[in-house]
């Protein structure tokens, strides 16, 4: 799971101790070298007297990309709104000057 063996062992110890482990934005590299963002959830439960570890890994790369695009679009819209507010203020001052 981790490139660092010590980090992997620490995560496994945490799982054994708490029975639950979650990483919301864990970067993983595919065999083809592509970087993917995943959500990793693991828990320990008892099945017929045996401890079983269940791991769920969900690829969230597309969701993270869409969230980032949404954030950039929102920032752009806010900047455009601020520019429009400044332009309207300048227009109002100009019209006020003309009417006096």
User: In what range is the share of β-strand residues?
Assistant: 25-35%
What is the number of strand segments?
3
Count up the helices. Answer: 2
Helix content: 40-55%
Largest sheet: 3 strands, antiparallel
- Poorly predicted parts: none
Mean pLDDT: 90
Name the structural class: alpha+beta
Q: How many structural units, i.e. domains?
A: 2
The dominant shape is rod-shaped
- The end-to-end distance, rounded to whole angstroms, is 73 Å
User: How are the strands ordered across the major sheet?
Assistant: 1-2-3
- The run of helices and strands is HEEEH
Radius of gyration: 26 Å
Offer a concise description of the structure.
With 100 residues, the chain is an alpha+beta fold.
């Amino acid at each position: 799971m981790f490139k660092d063996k010590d980090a992997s062992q620490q995560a496994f110890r945490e799982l054994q101790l708490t029975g639950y482990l979650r990483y919301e934005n864990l970067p993983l590299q595919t065999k083809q070298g592509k970087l993917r963002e995943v959500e990793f959830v693991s828990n320990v439960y008892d099945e017929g007297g045996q401890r079983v570890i269940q791991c769920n890994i969900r690829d969230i790369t597309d969701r993270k990309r869409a969230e980032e695009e949404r954030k950039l679009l929102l920032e752009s819209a806010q900047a455009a709104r601020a520019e429009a507010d400044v332009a309207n203020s300048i227009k109002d001052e100009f019209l006020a000057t003309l009417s006096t």
